Amino acid sequence: MDLDWNDDQRAILDALRVLLDQHAGQERAAELARDDAYDTALHAALADAGYLEISLADDAGLLEAAMLVDAVAGAAGSVSIGASALIAPALVGAVPPDPVALARAGERGPVRFGAHAAQVLVDDGDEARLVELGDRRGEPVETNYALPMGRLPDPLPAGRSLGAGSSARLRRLWRLALAAECHGAMRAAMDLTARYVSERRQFGRAIGSFQAIQHRFAECEVRVQGGRWLMLEAAHQGAPAGAVELAAGYATRTALQVFNELHQFTGAMGFTREHPLHTWTLRLQLLRLELGGPGMHYRQAARVRWGRAARGGTR
Amino acid sequence: MDFDWSDDDLAFRAELRAFVAANLPEDWAKISSEGPGGADLVAFSQGFCEKLAERGWLTQHWPAEFGGRDASAWRHQILGEEMWGNAEPRGPRYMTVNWVGPSIMHFGTEEQKALHLPRIARGDVVWCQGFSEPGAGSDLAALRTSAIRDGDDYVVNGSKIWTSYVNHADYCYLVARTDPDSRGRQGISAILLPMDLPGIELREIPGLLGKKYFHEVFLRDVRVPIACRLGPEHDGWGVVTYTLAYERVGAAHYDRAARVLDAIAAEAGRKGLLESDAILERLGEARAAIEVARLLTYRVIDLREKQSPPTPDTNLARVAGTWAVRMTGDLLLEVFGAEGLVYGSEADAYFRLSQWAGVASGTTEIQLNLIAGHQLRLPRE
Ligand SMILES: Cc1cc2nc3c(=O)[nH]c(=O)nc-3n(C[C@H](O)[C@H](O)[C@H](O)COP(=O)(O)OP(=O)(O)OC[C@H]3O[C@@H](n4cnc5c(N)ncnc54)[C@H](O)[C@@H]3O)c2cc1C
Questions:
Q1: In Å, how far is A56's CA from the nearest CA of chain B?
Q2: Cα–Cα dist B350/B210, whole Å
Q3: At what angle do helices A7-23 and A62-74 cross, to 10 degrees?
Q4: β-pairing, A119-124 with A100-104?
Q5: How far is CA B258 from the centre of its chain?
Q6: From CA B342, how far away is CA B335, in angstroms rounded?
Q7: Rounded mean pLDDT of A192-210?
């Protein structure tokens, strides 16, 4: 047991922060969001520096990948970091060069990066499939939720099967990546808002000194920190069934609470484009819906733990 | 970063589990149904702790010079999980090894260490904590019990309340005002008070948690030698905060909650309730809350093992622990239904004894205040 980063992990994080300071961040995110763009430059920078392959290195794995996903989300990166750096390498053993979308067979709604992806990882119940879109790309949809979204071609090409049972692994990795992305975004939003409520004054005092705000803020802090440990432990253990569902359930349920609370604490200002909060909070609304949302994650966690007694759905 | 137990730790846990299984009597559920302070459990805990001590497990995390084995804080946490997870067969003695002993090691004189530590390490002494007073709950620094110097003694007057285990205690870890003109955190001292001194009287306060659970302690002209003071005179607030940091995550409530949740799921299965999405979801959510409490506690243990001074992680772990226990208790009654209301049934024992989680050893609101101030660094008024 050792719950601090080791020297190698710290070195990776330090170097990564330098890259993210240069290529990502709030201003860059705002610029991209204006026309629902994908951050091709950031994607290339992460790929060139080898970060997308981090989980394939001899001395690293899913924990380092989760750390990366968390950090990129914290820097408001508008790239398919979870799918490209965590899910695809673990599932197919290689890093796809272009953006990757995630989809579930039978669901037609818009998905993250649906108009930018060259490849799609599809959860098909039992077998996961890797679909090359070629020149049949998805259609963009206009969205308010920070990351570009699009509708994938319908029907999707069949693609290549990743083997019997691979969908379960895809969902586990997807849930881990979701938890990491939620954490990165929530941490950044919390830090920003802690500063805001310390500065904004009403009734002659900082609004952050009102206990009604302090307690709710502190409750969010317990959940954000607690969820971080769930996510990191699940990553360290290799994304086992049970742990990842708990991590995703806790992260996405916290995501809604953090969204609601932080927007309450920042008043009208928090609903403007000029105030940076939305850069991190809007994407939480999108993330919390994936794979059925917190209720589905939690039910699946219960089925994994109390399996025989609790047969039912498989997702 | 590494979440794996060492092979030695795993082996220790396995050995400990076998020991517990072999040493808990058949009627353990009944013995433990009044909590760690129930008369049957207090009596049982003596022999049980002696056996733990014989194996060197009771105070293994203490330094060898005080009867320990220099084991890691992790080892002691494993012990704590297996004990609290099994309704705490150490009875009230968990307090003595968790925080009374460490506080005496840190602040005690050589005589105090020689007197108290071997007895605690053998497991044959019960302590209670005399902090709260009728007028001093969350605001502990408002305490008024006085201990005034008179020759070689302090003369203690006042009253303490909610003092768990006091009806069984050999000693009381008391805080009192030694400077009569002081207020707030100044002028307080800690005193290791023998409970057999004249002038100490107990009154039971009938309560909802069980039989003989709550007591008030009246102290009238109790003469206690000045040599019983722990740490600096008038400057005992540091002793108090040191103690509280050890106390707040001392009991592994999450481990018991995890086992109770398994029992809830089994009962739900018997009743066909696992077909219900609503129940499944709540089971999953409660399990997540328990795991969060476990991991936040592990962070505290990790920092303790690294000799870091206490951080707000302790407060995070306490709040998360309370949420986990409350969520488990609420679901327990729903799944067990009216059977869970029968006094002394297993469901009743857990529910009844878990409802104070957000109050004892510092309320949830106080933890949230501390998180807001020390972790989030939000401004004061
Ligand atoms: C089962 C049990 C065992 C106990 N055992 C012991 C023991 O062995 N020894 C001992 O000394 N004490 C013991 N206690 C007492 C315990 O430490 C106190 O109950 C606790 O500190 C709270 O004090 P109080 O009950 O007076 O509540 P109060 O302080 O009156 O609080 C009532 C409510 O007001 C809130 N409140 C108070 N101050 C603030 C604030 N600043 N901001 C926001 N909200 C606030 C509290 O959070 C709480 O919700 C025990 C209590 C219980 C329930």
A1: 18
A2: 11
A3: 30
A4: parallel
A5: 18
A6: 14
A7: 98
Kind of pairing between the strands at A149-151 and A139-141? antiparallel
ipTM over 0.85: yes
Residue of A nearest to B288 (CA): A246
Domains and their CATH numbers in chain A: 167-309 (1.20.140.10)
Could you tell me if the CB of B365 is within 6 A of ligand 1? yes
Average pLDDT, chain A: 95
Domains and CATH numbers, chain B: 7-125 (1.10.540.10), 128-234 (2.40.110.10), 248-375 (1.20.140.10)
Task: Tell me which residue has its CA closest to atom 30 in ligand 1.
Answer: B137
Which tokens in the block code for residue B19?
């020991």
In angstroms, what separates the C-alpha of B374 from chain A's closest C-alpha?
10
Contact A113, A99 (CB under 8 A): yes
Question: Do A281 and A189 meet the contact criterion of CB atoms below 8 Å apart?
Answer: yes
Test the A interface: residue of B371, B375, B377, B381 with most A CBs within 10 Å: B371
The tokens describing B344, both together, are: 């002394």
CB A221 to CB B376 under 8 A?
A: yes
pTM of the model: 0.96
Half-sphere exposure of A15 (CA within 13 A, CB side): 11
CB within 8 A of B349, min separation 6: which ones? B29, B32, B33, B34, B35, B87
Centre a 10 Å sphere on the Cβ of residue B218 and count the other Cβ atoms it contains: 15
**CA atoms of A86 and A91, how far apart (whole Å):** 9
Q: What's the pLDDT at A310?
A: 54
Kindly state the tokens that stand for B261. Answer: 């949740």
Q: Which two tokens stand for residue B217?
A: 């302690």
**End-to-end CA gap in chain A:** 32
pLDDT 10s digits, B239-292: 999 998 887 776 799 999 999 999 999 999 999 999 999 999 999 999 999 999
Alpha carbon of B168 to ligand 1 centroid (Å): 22
What is the position in ligand 1's atom list of the atom closest to the CA of B132?
A: 11
Q: What are phi and psi of B227, to 5 degrees?
A: -60, -10
Chain segment B154-172, per-residue pLDDT in tens:
999 999 999 999 999 999 9
Taking only residues 291 to 310 of chain A, the set having a beta carbon closer than 8 angstroms to any beta carbon of chain B reads: 295, 297-303, 305-306, 309-310
- What is each CA distance from A249 to A31, A207, B166, B296, in whole angstroms? 31, 31, 43, 17
Average pLDDT over residues A269-289: 96
- Within 10 angstroms of residue B206's Cβ, the number of other Cβ atoms is 8
Chain A interface mutation, best of B326, B331, B378, highest count of A Cβ atoms under 10 Å = B378
